[in-house]
Specification:
The complex is a heterodimer.
Chain A: E1 6-19, E2 22-35, E3 39-43, H1 50-58, E4 66-75, E5 78-79, H2 85-91, E6 96-99, H3 113-124, H4 129-142, H5 148-152, H6 161-173, E7 179-183, H7 191-208, E8 211-216, H8 219-225, E9 228-233, E10 236-242, H9 243-248, H10 253-260, H11 302-306, E11 312-315, E12 318-320
Parallel strand pairs in A: 3-8, 3-9, 6-7, 7-8
Antiparallel strand pairs in A: 1-2, 1-4, 4-5, 9-10, 10-12, 11-12
Helix pairs in contact in A: 3-4, 3-6, 4-6, 6-7
Chain B: H1 2-27, H2 45-54, H3 61-73, H4 88-123, H5 128-142, H6 145-159, H7 184-222, H8 225-232, H9 237-260, H10 263-266, H11 269-274, H12 280-289, H13 293-321
Helix pairs in contact in B: 1-13, 4-5, 4-7, 4-13, 5-7, 6-7, 7-9, 8-9, 9-13, 12-13
Classes of the chains: A alpha/beta, B mainly alpha.
Chain lengths: 328, 328
């Protein structure tokens, strides 16, 4: 895994939102590495900063109120945060592209899907309209849309959610990006469609070889797809390891809690309620002192309430941000 | 679509008939204009009776309607009571171009200024530009036209003078007396001077509402997911606004524009009165209060037909810019 070249290296990224009620540190020191062709999962509850991380990579944080206040995002060794807006625009949709949670609203209702995909192609490649159309139809075919020639001139409202998400994927992959960011791309879909889209993404990843950053709150999604999993909590990465490691021997109490709360079919049905993590995600305006997970952590000690733990490598490639990691 | 339009046009006929009957019935509530003549000792009772009979005021309103309607079918809209000797149609034909010139220019000026500043104010929400636009919009909307008109008259006709001692702009009217037979360009320039102040007064009050409509429609659109999608594929900011956002934001605005066009014919009675412009607004009010029902009915039917036609046009344009709308 690690012998592959590093594609994205996020170091201590901090993205804050300045609201009327105060400063929200949505992302407060995220570190994340993505190798070329690697599928990386970023998992966490709502509000832990996963989507903000993705939008920070794209430099699409709405400003105001949001602002990237610190850190570095290296992409092919160059810091994206130092790029001009125009340089960044040329990267978006070409080298890095993104698909979003809501396929129903992510496509412009007044343009045909063909127009919308070929726009992405002509923006980044020097080709004429005829070739762009040909390429668009190829892409539609690639993402498994039947009758691509006919679909080309259809409008988004004439398609189902699953089909629209395929269109989004076709659009995102039309310029052969090095990195595809999937921000909860399957969350809004029916379970069966979800499985189809995940299948499609996995197949395309094998075929085209791009890296994928999968952002989700659903551990099952990353379990199927990801090589590496990063668990985020309150704007920080709390654990990072290979998918196998995470599921086999979670070391952070939060990861452990998340895994415990997944119902298992192998176990005998009991009347016991499913174990859940006590408490709530802390309010971003009132982050607890010390480790941000300490109010909900069954193992928290005095130290956890005073000091903030660093991300440490407990085993090769297994990083954990905890003073009292669970023994493997 | 073609069938739909034909159906709508056929539906207009009964609608216009109903509008005719109802407005005629309402007009008949205006007291008989000849009844007051009884007070005048110099007019003979028999003459009054003859007038009442000739104008049909001895009949119930519906009988008078049928008599009038019989003429309308033959193309005769009846004589004007307000301007004895002229037909109602001729009276309207004199006022109509005056009003269309004033209101048409005002309408175009208001749109040409109001829509762009509305867009600007939306894409720079909460900036200084936005605040200035908002304050000026509300000022325009809340300033009474008669007062603003008088202020302008003070400035341009009283304070500011030409070297010859004449006012910089004529305070009222539509054409300098004596120029009726002048060449086209002389008349054009002369008319333009008379139009400056009334156009400013009327445009100032409607620029504000256009800017506000445009701003809110644009704000609604630019926070949509598909705008983020457009940015994510690397569309330049200018096209994000002009191509992806504007077309969606224009959908409600175009409807509003189409529905406002009939007002061009209706005139603006207050402003016309202030600037002594013999337009439709003034004429219809005078006709209504003086029981000149033939004239009032011509004016009213003209406006009603335009309202109905432009409603249909709005629906057609609506389907044209929004592919989600289909008529069958």
């Amino acid at each position: 895994m690690d012998n592959r070249e590093v594609l994205v290296d996020i170091k201590n990224l901090r993205t804050f939102f300045y609201t009327e009620d105060g400063v929200v540190p949505a992302v407060d020191g995220i570190d994340l590495t993505i190798h070329q062709g690697e599928v990386v999962g970023l998992v966490g509850e709502s509000g832990c900063g996963k989507s903000v991380t993705a939008l920070s990579i794209m430099r699409l944080i709405p400003d105001p109120p949001g602002k990237i206040v610190g850190g570095e995002i290296f992409f092919h060794g160059e810091d994206l945060l130092k790029k001009s807006n125009e340089e960044m625009r040329l990267i978006r949709g070409d080298k890095i592209s993104m698909i979003f949670q809501e396929p129903m609203t992510s496509l412009n209702p007044v343009y045909t899907i063909g127009d919308q995909i070929s726009e992405a192609i002509t923006l980044h490649q020097k080709i004429n309209a005829v070739e762009a159309k040909k390429r668009t139809i190829e892409m539609l075919h690639l993402v498994g849309i039947p009758e691509p020639e006919r679909r080309y001139s259809q409008y988004p409202h004439e398609m189902s959610g699953g089909m629209r998400q395929r269109v989004m994927i076709a659009m995102a992959l039309s310029c052969n990006p090095d990195l595809l960011i999937s921000d909860e791309a399957t969350t809004a879909l029916d379970v069966t469609i979800q499985a189809q889209i995940l299948d499609l993404m996995r197949g395309l990843q094998k075929k085209l070889g791009m890296a994928i950053l999968i952002i989700t709150h659903n551990l099952a999604v990353v379990a199927e797809m990801a090589d590496t999993i990063n668990i985020a909590y309150a704007g920080k990465i709390v654990e990072s390891a290979t998918a196998r490691e995470i599921f086999k021997s979670p070391r952070h109490p939060y990861t452990y809690g998340l895994l415990q709360s997944i119902p298992k079919f192998t176990e005998k049905r009991t009347s016991e309620p499913l174990p859940a993590i006590e408490g709530m995600v802390p309010s971003p305006y009132h982050m607890p002192k010390g480790c941000s997970f300490n109010p909900r952590c069954p193992f928290a000690t005095e130290k956890c309430r005073e000091e903030e733990p660093e991300l440490v490598e407990l085993a090769p490639g297994h990083m954990v941000r905890c003073f009292h990691p669970i023994e493997s | 679509m073609r069938d739909y339009v034909i159906r709508r046009i056929l539906g207009m006929i009964p609608l216009i008939l109903i509008v005719m009957i109802v407005s005629f019935a309402i007009f008949s509530m205006v007291p008989n204009p000849f009844a007051a003549l009884i007070e005048n000792p110099r007019i003979k009772r028999s003459d009054i009776d003859r007038l009442i009979k000739a104008w049909g005021f001895d009949l119930p309103w519906y009988m008078r309607f049928f008599r009038w309607f019989g003429g309308v079918i033959r193309g005769d809209w009846g004589p004007s009571l307000l301007y004895p000797g002229s037909s109602a149609r001729d009276v309207i034909a004199l006022a109509l171009p005056v009003t269309v010139r004033l209101m048409g220019i005002e309408f175009l000026v208001a749109l040409a200024i109001g829509l762009p500043i509305g867009i600007l104010s939306a894409i720079k929400q909460y900036s200084m530009t936005d605040y200035v636009v908002t304050v000026v919009s509300f000022m325009g909307m809340s300033m009474p036209t008669f007062w603003f008109g008088l202020l302008l008259m003070m400035l341009f006709s009283v304070v500011l003078k030409r070297p010859s001692g004449m006012p910089l702009l004529p305070p009222g009217g539509i054409l300098t007396p004596g120029l009726e037979e002048a060449s086209f360009w002389v008349k054009f320039l002369d008319r333009a001077q008379y139009l400056v102040m009334p156009v400013i007064v009327l445009a100032f009050s409607s620029i504000g509402s256009w800017a506000r409509y445009m701003r809110s429609s644009m704000l609604e659109v630019i926070r949509q997911d598909y705008i983020r999608t457009a940015r994510a594929k690397g569309v330049p900011e200018r096209s994000v606004i002009n191509k992806h956002a504007l077309r969606n934001a224009m959908i409600p605005i175009v409807t509003l524009i189409a529905l406002s066009v009939p007002a061009i014919v209706g005139g603006a009675s207050i402003t016309e009165t202030i600037f002594n412009i013999p337009g439709m607004g003034k004429l219809i009010i005078a006709a209504e209060t003086k029981a000149d029902y033939p004239t009032a009915m011509v004016g009213l039917m003209l406006i009603s037909i335009l309202v109905i036609v432009f409603n249909l046009l709005a629906d057609i344009v609506y389907a044209w810019i929004d592919p989600r709308i289909k008529y069958s």
